[in-house]
Amino acid sequence: MSSFEEAETEETVTCLHLTFYHPGQGEKMMFRCLDFYRRQQLRADDTAKFGRDSSLCRYSLVDTRVSRIQFSLQFYRKLHSSEYAFEIKNLSKKTKLTVNQTELGYLNKIDLPWKCIICFGDYQILAEIQEGEAVDYFETHLHLAEAPILQERCLPSLQPIPENGISPSFPLGQGKSPTEIDENEL
Predict the structure, then answer these.
(1) Where is the FHA domain (predicted)?
(2) CA distances from 24 to 63, 111, 112, 129, 143 (A)
(3) 3-state DSSP call for residue 109?
(4) Closest CA to 12 of 138, 141, 133, 135
(5) Among residues 7, 3, 23, 8, which one has the least CA distance to residue 151?
(6) What is the pLDDT of residues 49-100, one digit of tens each?
(7) By the 8 A CB rule, do 112 and 86 touch?
(8) Could you tell me the domains of the chain?
(9) Under the phi-then-psi rule, with left for phi > 0, alpha for psi from -120 to 50, and beta for the rest, what region is 47?
């Protein structure tokens, strides 16, 4: 037998990919304490805390509008299963946290979906779970988004924008309302 055949099987590690966005990240530099683009290993019994207090939070956001401890992520194994998951808990008394439109008040917690968007204030975080088998630890991998993760939620414009992105030169609303035309009638 070769040493390759005798080597222990390499186990994969569950990794939580987190992509951060804030509209003021360029000038306010609230993510300057985060270590982007490098995987970090955490013990399975560690709680990953996010907030502005760097003495309490592993992931510190430099912003006075962020709570001392904003939220936490806990790695766990589901009961009577070999599946691993993350639980997210809102630890802010002042700010609600949303996970894919589910609103969490102070101390509310839910299982983190395998892919979701976490929002609080102007912060948007895309969370994606990459499954693994390791039981003693997990990894986090932080990324920085250049553009908003969620599309801006604003009222629709009064003038339709065609697929080519070029607005028509004629103004709408001169006594006529838009009408639908069947493509076969053209």
Answers:
(1) 49-121
(2) 11, 29, 26, 27, 16
(3) strand
(4) 133
(5) 23
(6) 999 999 999 999 999 999 999 999 999 988 888 888 999 999 999 999 999 9
(7) yes
(8) 15-149 (2.60.200.20)
(9) beta
